[in-house]
Amino acid sequence: MRGRLLRLLRTPVGRIGLGLLTLLALLALLAPLLWGDRASTVDTGNLLGGPSAQHWVGTDNLGRDLFFRVLVATRLSLVLALLATALGVLLGLVLGIAPLLLGGRAGRLVVAAVNILVAFPSLLLVLFFAVVFGVGARGAALAIGVAIAPAFARLVQNLVAGVAERDFVAAARIAGVHPVRIVVRHVLPNIAEPLVVNATVTAGGVLLSFAGLSFLGLGVQSPDYDWGRLMQDGLSGIYTHPLAALAPGIAVILAGLAFNLTGEAVAGTFGDPSVRGRAWPGPGRDGDTDRGDDRGATTADPAEPLLEVGDLSVAFPSPTGVTRPVRGISLRIDAGEAVGVVGESGSGKSLTALAIARLVEEPGRVAAKRLRFCGADLRGSIDPVLLGTSLAVVFQDPMSSFNPVMRIGSQLAEVGRQHQGLSRRAAFARAVDRLRAVRVQDPERRARQYPHEFSGGMRQRAMIGMGLMGSPRLIIADEPTTALDVTVQRQVLALLRDIRREENAALLLISHDVSVVAEVCDRVLVMYAGRIVEDLPAAELRTRARHPYTRALVAAVPDMATDPTEPLATIPGQPVDPAHVPVGCAYAARCPWATDRCREEDPVLRSDPAGHRVACWHADEQRSGEPTGLRLTKGGAA
Questions:
Q1: Which of 158, 278, 591, 628 is a good FRET partner for 209, with 20 to 30 A between their CA atoms?
Q2: 547 and 486 belong to one structural domain
């Protein structure tokens, strides 16, 4: 807090804003005590007097000194404005966060109600609620507070919606963090800056609104007075004694300027990562004891597959009905096995992983005949500790996977405190150890840094380290090497291999890169149009692929033997739109082997005695070379 205040005072805007705000606060505290009597003293011999050495602004119709009355009115004007602002901000926060906490139909109803209220002009709402709550200071405060809440709620909803889709929020959900804690810990800190600016600017606007209501006779009532009441009293003599109305108006302008300038300066301080956040204490900083780290341990039958999925589908409502981007996925992963998932963008790879991890939110619907992990049925209500400690998810973009306003160590340690019952000291020590395990140099210092201080490769390592805070039985890595250079990519893949060996964890690796999957995984699942079209050993991917789509994917990846003088191979046509999946085989329109049967009947995923599964009517036919429809055209690899 001291660092923020010092930084605030270093800026001209901050100094001016804080100076004005401090002056107003002192006036609000001291003016009624020092000059309350002089402001209320009646002088019948000097009614409606002009400015003089005795009365700097003049007197009102009872001879009271207007300068001191403006000063004394500061307390009531500021108190009422701050109360109304606090009420509006509180209501706006509740309405803005409610859709995230409620979800489903209740959340949509809140959004609809806010949208309706925002459509009304704010002045009309203020006047309406002023009539509802009654004339007077209390009614005006309630009216203005309720009237400003919808606009603030709309801002909060928009900001929350942007943060709620970030990967670090999804990681907190899969860790089993309570929704309220997610809001307080992860969402609100990331939207604090615009909220602070809006709240302070709103306070200045509320001052003007109060002055307007009092000016109209709906706000503060005699014998009390605020700046708006003083403006109303001075209106009758505006042509002969203009300062009587202008002085309180100038006070309103200065107060609004103080709030606005201070808000801008505070927002700049909130936006500086060097002064925000709080480091998690290192080992030995507190006296808490370690309560163990074995919570969430599973006792699944070793003979049972680690993950078993049967007929998994994901559906979303659409204007034309229901869209199913994932259709009937069935797979199994054994303990310690590495399974790769490949396919073009939009084939349903990531969505399948999200469905397995229970991260598909409303309005999405996940259905499965069988969905078991570590012996537990994921279709019903399960202990979140199981998913939080036994299932690790490494998201595609490490920058968005971390909360930018929290230190790396605190984000890793949160898993230990939430699910493993660790003390703050033990959780931090575990976080440092996990950073060391993923080959981060100087982990004690790095644990106290922010995500933006890490390079892309280091952020990805730290993300893997977060997954290792528990004892993961399965690691889901969704494009973990995207946007990394070749050297760092190889380091990350080597790290995943080492973790599999050391932790005996299974790996589900999602990637566009067929060569990466073939190098890292034991088995490969090829997806197209939301379905698995082939399941084969990784060692046979280049030589014994039977589905024409798999063979086309492999052929489209250049290698050292590719002729650099020839155009790169591409797959003709476009991927299927999930909202308009054709009858029969979804790949038929792009397949050189397609027949009428392919266009009329959807092939089932059949297994051969060796366990190689393929969904193609012509998979058993002998074919030499690549599919003739794999055109060589100018363009990149699929």
A1: 158
A2: no
